[in-house]
Amino acid sequence: MFRKKRHKESLGSAARVGFFLAVRQIKRASIWTNVLVVCVMVLTFLNLVVVSGILVGLIEGATQAVYKHYIGDVFITPLKEKNNIERSAIIMNTIRNIPGVEAVSGRYLGSGTVEADYKKAKKNANDKGNEVSTLFAGIDPVDEDKVTELSKLIIEGEYLNRSDYDQVIVGGMLLKKYLDFDSTTFPALADVNIGDKIRITINGNVREVWVKGITKSKVDEIDRRIFFVDSQFRGLAGRDDYNLGEISIKAKQGFSPSVIKQALLANNFDEYAVIKAGNEAEPKFIQDLRNTFSMLGTAISSIGLVVAAITIFIVIFINAVTRRKFIGILKGIGIRPATIEWAYIFQAFFYAIAGTLIGLVLVFGFLKPYFDANPINFPFSDGILVATASGTIIRIAVLFLATLVAGYIPVKIITRQNTLDAILNR
Amino acid sequence: MIQARKIIKKFKSGNSELTVLKGVDFDVDDGEFISIIGRSGSGKSTLMYQLSLLDRPTSGTIEIGGKNTDILTDRERTILRLFQLGYVFQDYALIPELNAIENVMIPLLEQGINKIDARKISARVLERVELKEKFNNLPNQLSGGEQQRVSIARAMGHNPKILFADEPTANLDNDTSISILKTFKELHADGQTIIMVTHEPEYVQYTDRVITLFDGNIVKNEKN
User: Fold this and answer.
1) Which residues of chain B approach chain A closer than 8 Å at the C-beta?
2) B126 domain residue, yes or no
3) With bands split at pLDDT 50, 70 and 90, how would you rate the model's confidence at A9?
């Protein structure tokens, strides 16, 4: 009577005995069965985390490149109705005195045309020759390099010095030999090499310059530009002010860009420029792309999750069916179905935990560092693996939920069968 | 201890119906050692499945310890089996991934007894069936006779009121069978109620009473 009462009161006893059974079933099962099931779980985990991580990483790689080589941590542009940032000199001085600023680069911008082989006679009046329209940027090469590491994007020739004159860096997308695709929308110069002379026209001013370097990156804004040293560019563009077209600021490590933005807003510089920090400056198409790829990744992950749930279901179902007689015997000697169900749920959890742990080690110990060091070379981005802690935790939780359901249903089907039929295998 | 009244058990096979037990009346007193014998197909195993609550009769009533088992739910029958009944199966029916002592521990753990106590009780029972050196052996590391002893230990470890044994010597050689029967005899001497199904007439000498089944009816019910 006492035991019976205790039995009824002990709600956790089913789980306790279930755990006892599960541990021994796992420990004494065939090592190859365990290895196989854990492998399936590892692949399931990777499918959930890595597939969507790579898809999001495609966009993340592009975004990071834009921040690193173009926007910086804080990006300042002219007001909508203006071509340049007014009071740029004051703004630049203020920026240099903000404590969290690592480096700042101001760019003078102007549009115009660039020609190659311009000494060759044109066939007729409509012949445009070897000429493209583009954007010119006047930069301080040292400051620019500190902010955007532009020198690292030089794939041919050399980077600019402050003292360079009549020398330019040409973006790869302006040159046919570096353009990865053939399109009339992206006209490019043919037969331009390092040391060649090209002719540029800005605001009606024409000048011959030498190609000193060529950039190639995954950031179109850089690869569709021609860079001058700022002093020469101002003269060439006929600019007698110091108003810039863009300002990129790099924050010190661990310093929040929004603090820099707040410091600028405190000086009312938003009356003269648009000041954006972090992902505010991100182009909208990138945000849209990120959302789309994230949804795509979630959809693919969902399919992976269903496949995982079915896999777990099949594994547990086969296990339970082949052990139907022993399940019957356990019920026959008075073991409650709940205890047996717990045993199988614990087994399913064991496989999920083992698969997840190995998957975590693979993702965070190997794959993520590997892709960070060796991004996947996509035409528009250096793809990385995006695996955030919060996203991974959510995926683990979903995987465990699927495991719980997929592990419980098959054993419930078996434990509901007639005890004697199970014992006698009929 | 057990009162079975007008037990009928029918099996359906397609459109035909087979009546295996045809209204069996049957009493078992506390502390009795009963053997049920009969030819193959006479219904002896079926009768035992009804008495041991592993199956439900088509009609009739079974009372165990004064409790009508017909009205019990499956869960209540499971609990009754756990606390009051013990089983020794013909093919030993040990759980293959549990070693000898763990097989004996399982019903005790399910009763809510802690692991240390369950292990102590199981060790004591295994010693009683002379398996002291085999505690940690898995079933496939034991002989048939040893497996049956573990099965007996599992059945009696939780002090059941009634011990059911379904042809416990069917797969054993003669010497081992006699050894198993002597174990039953010792348990019976300590007051254990035992109901054993057997097809070997020479083994009934170990029991107090012999019930002979023929074609689903009790044709003989006599004391030894």
Assistant:
1) 49, 54-55, 75, 78-79, 81-83, 85-87, 89, 93, 95-98, 102, 106-107, 109-113, 115, 138, 154-155
2) yes
3) very low
